[in-house]
Design brief:
- This protein is α/β, with parallel strands linked by helices and 462 residues long.
- The strands form 2 sheets. It has a 9-stranded antiparallel beta sheet.
- Strand 10 and strand 11 form a beta hairpin.
- Helix 4 crosses helix 5.
- The radius of gyration is 25 Å and the shape is globular.
């Protein structure tokens, strides 16, 4: 009651809001058509005045600096210049009613004060004590002269035991494959180890505690890292060297078949949303499906896809030469911008640098050109390929069918193909499959997917 009286006094006398009223964590939900996006503003009063950061939990973004924070009577104004974002709201008690703006678009957004810092609920994250041993370790990639850091979980059962190596998807990933507040590999490792399977998961090169340079690495480099992990496990007395398998998610589903095709000591592989078609086709399908699911008009999708294909083809013609790719992609992008109405060109030109950088990294040039099909024909060990039918990043039907066809061409009859209904690219039970859903879903991996993987591996090593 005292706080409410003081607040009214402050408003009527023009003293403005106290730091206690303004400071804290504010949570709101931005609604853009059918999409919803949670935003968090963390405001604090310092000796140098008010400062703030913004989090976008549903996009996995945290601690984005707010450029300007202004308090005027009952109004809080925030600006993030680089993102062209602003928010202005009127505070009444623990509620702030205002307008969110970005790049000229305005949306009403109400924010509510949170009693503590906002955290995502992740009920599947395992909590100690664990019924198994966990050991942090390092192993060496001798070919590239780097140390990779990871965690080995060992079931409490007579040794030697079967083991799997978890291989993460694209982008810099730590050993838990942490993204959008989720830790899929932590959950998967816990589940498999409780079911009698040792698990080695490790930080990508150049990420967290692992040495190396992630920015210059390609899928071929990550293959060498996984091969080093296989060699390391074969030297552990607790591990059965004849029962070491690979579980790869997304890009990991590209890497696992390469490793299995290269060496005969891989006993089995599990492909979670692995691909069977060239990266350039994956990127094209991915953007088309995501735009359609997001409600983008077909005319805009068609135009965007035409422009993207021209840039992708320009990148492919460079044959992996980064300097040539940058020139070719920039030229294609500038030609596309030149066809826009004059009122739109200035803004579009600002995006060219980002597009060029995205399509011409060493990793992307390798990915765009890589065709998994010939490698799948060389894989002779048992394979489980599974995907969710709502995966918009690696569409299930075309890729599962491609994996099946590629393995059949190599006369591999030890193949299990599973399409899981209602699951997205992270194997979460979902509504639309859109990436912006990932963080908002509390589930990290569907129990159905976990059981499918564990049961199949058990059948291979029993």
């Amino acid at each position: 009651m005292k706080k409410m009286v003081f607040l009214l006094f402050a408003l009527f006398t023009g003293m403005g809001l106290t730091s206690q009223v303004v400071s804290g964590t504010w949570l709101g939900e931005l609604k853009v058509g059918p999409q919803k996006l949670r935003l968090v503003f963390n405001v604090e009063n310092t000796d140098d005045g008010y400062k703030a950061t913004m989090d976008s939990p549903d996009q996995g973004a945290k601690g984005i600096p707010v450029t300007s924070v202004k308090v005027n009577h009952d109004t809080l104004s925030l600006e993030l210049t680089a993102l062209k974002i602003s928010y202005q709201g009127v505070i009444t008690g623990d509620v702030m009613t205002g307008t969110f703006s970005q790049s000229g678009m305005r949306f009403p957004m109400e924010m509510k004060r949170q009693e503590q810092a906002f955290t995502m609920t992740r009920p599947q994250n395992p909590q100690p004590p664990f019924p198994y041993k966990s050991e942090d370790l390092t192993f060496r990639n001798e070919k590239d002269g780097i140390e990779l850091a990871g965690t080995l979980t060992l079931p409490e059962r007579p040794t030697p035991v079967p083991a799997v190596i978890l291989i993460s998807g694209s982008g810099p990933q730590n050993r838990d494959e942490e993204l959008m507040g989720h830790k899929p590999f932590l959950v998967l490792a816990d589940y498999l180890t409780r079911n009698g399977i040792a698990v080695l998961r490790f930080d990508d090169r150049g990420v967290a505690a692992s040495q190396g340079d992630f920015k210059t690495a390609t899928t071929a480099d990550f293959v060498k890292d996984v091969e080093s992990a296989v060699t390391y496990l074969k030297g552990r007395s607790e591990i059965n060297p004849a029962q070491i398998g690979l579980v790869g998610h997304s890009e990991g589903g590209i890497i696992a078949p390469i490793v299995a095709a290269n060496r005969k000591d891989v006993a089995y592989i599990v492909l979670m949303a692995g691909t069977a078609i060239p990266g350039s086709e994956i990127l094209d399908l991915q953007s088309d499906l995501i735009m359609k699911a997001s409600g983008v008009p077909q005319t805009m999708i068609t135009k965007s896809q035409e422009e993207s294909r021209k840039m992708i083809q320009a990148a492919l013609r460079s044959k992996g030469d980064v300097a040539e790719a940058k020139k070719a992609v920039r030229k294609a992008a500038e030609e596309s911008v030149a066809t826009l109405p004059e009122s739109e060109r200035a803004e579009a030109y600002k995006m060219i640098d980002a597009k060029v950088a995205q399509l011409t990294s060493p990793w992307m040039l390798y990915f765009l050109a890589y065709d998994p099909a010939p490698v799948l024909e060389r894989v002779k060990c048992p394979v489980l390929a599974l995907n969710g039918d709502k995966d918009l990043q690696v569409p299930s039907k075309i890729n599962l069918e491609g994996i099946k066809t590629g393995l059949a061409k190599g006369n591999n009859k030890k193949v299990t193909i599973v399409e899981l209904p209602g699951l997205n690219h992270l194997f979460q039970e979902c509504t639309t499959g859109l990436p912006q859903e990932y963080a908002g879903i509390e589930q990290t991996i569907s129990p159905t997917a976990l059981k499918e993987i564990a049961d199949w591996i058990d059948a291979q090593v029993r």
